Predict the structure.
Amino acid sequence: MNEDPNISSTSMKLEEAQEEILALRRQLDELRAQNQAMWTLLAEVSRRLQTSSTSIKAAASSLLEHDIFWDGSNQHEFLEAIDTSVDQGADLITLMMLAFRSEANTLELQLEPHTLQEILSAVLETVAIEKPEFNVVFDCPPVGTPVLVDYEYLAIGLRLLLDVLMESGMVSSQLTLRLVELEGSWLLDILDTQESVTEALNHLCQNRFDELMLVDHISPENVLKFFTASRIIQLQNIELDVQMGEQGETSLRLTIPTVSKA
Amino acid sequence: MNAAKILLISEEPNILRILRRNLTSRGYDVAIALDDQEVAEMISSDEFDLYILDLDFKSAKIDGLAICCHIRELSYAPIIVLSTIGAETLKIKALDLGADDYLVMPFAMGEFLARVRSALRRWATYQINTANKNKVILIGDLMIDPESRLVTIKGSEIHLTPIEYDLLYYLAQNSGKVITHRKLLQSVWGAEYGEEREYLRVFISQLRRKIESNPLRPTYILTEPGVGYRFARDKRDK
């Protein structure tokens, strides 16, 4: 006996609708998990801020205690603790402001033609001063097509990205940056990265900040840096992904469109 | 007197530095543990009078609550927990796992130091009580060794029933003090007792027969008429 075509069509539509509902539920669950991960990150960052304020309060109240005389060297030690704690807190607040502004798309980017070599050289100069324990090799052609980027924000984004890689053990003490021009874009490969960079980048792309902290053991500050760096870079139409080499080596790749393509 | 030994456990160098400076300047002997390995080594190899634990300690292997639990397994010394989180549930958890005090960050140094003094006072009292509890009592010719529950008079062992021993030991521990009938009954027989004075008459009489050279003129267990009993501080105390 043949099935009624109307019944068959309705049944198919019902199945499709059920599948759609299931897909929407999965999306909703994913969004909920991402939302929770964001709050987890914010809670951790707040805890760091509270730790800084604890140091400041403890040091200041020590100086105000009357039962003891603090000599010059002790006073200096307390003041130094206040000084570094204020810096830590302020750095974190600056980073949060940058992260929220990039997420809210309120960063005022001045996209203008610049040469990548110039921006990267400036970034690496700072890295060499602040992280002398790392040997950074920059391999690039002397000239090439300019890119349409915001000089300052790209430099900030790259700096943050290198900071995270160096501070969270995703690179060893040797780090190579290789810049290659293709038709319409530049490839910036950050070589000598560890395998952990793949997993961390996956978690970052999925906004799983909780996984970055719990599984990849990246500190809340570095998660926030990673997140901010990726948003700032992506706001300038730059793609960020992980490349696997033939020998199993990993590298972090930034694909930066040149002026003509951008 | 030796300085109290304090172990500070935190991953925050600035906090450690400030707390250590404050404590050492006030005469405490301070050690610090900054990471997993140091924590494990310090708490198992040395004895401290006080542990100050930053509950936000979060390394890959162990967290603050687990450290708190681990310390309590090894030591009765007080633990002051410091935390950026003031949530009641976390406070309860930490206290249930063995913490003695919970201080929410940020805090003023004066309050922190007061809590340190308070914890060390409690620890000193606990240690004195524990030491007294196991101390051999020697009064006149009487010797009581609580560890072996051995009682001797002029070196000869006296056989006592458990109740007789408990009664004698309680009185001797509080020698020189008048112990009321109610207090004695409650301390030896239990909280629900208090009116059973005849118990005391029977057991005190038995004890006197065993330890006094003349039970009719006792020199150890003295009667305080209408009130209770007093154990002589020494034999001249009658």
In short: The longest helix of chain A spans residues 5-64. Chain A has a mean pLDDT of 89. Chain A has two domains: 7-103, 112-257. Residues 112-257 of chain A form a domain with the Heat Shock Protein 90 fold (CATH 3.30.565.10).
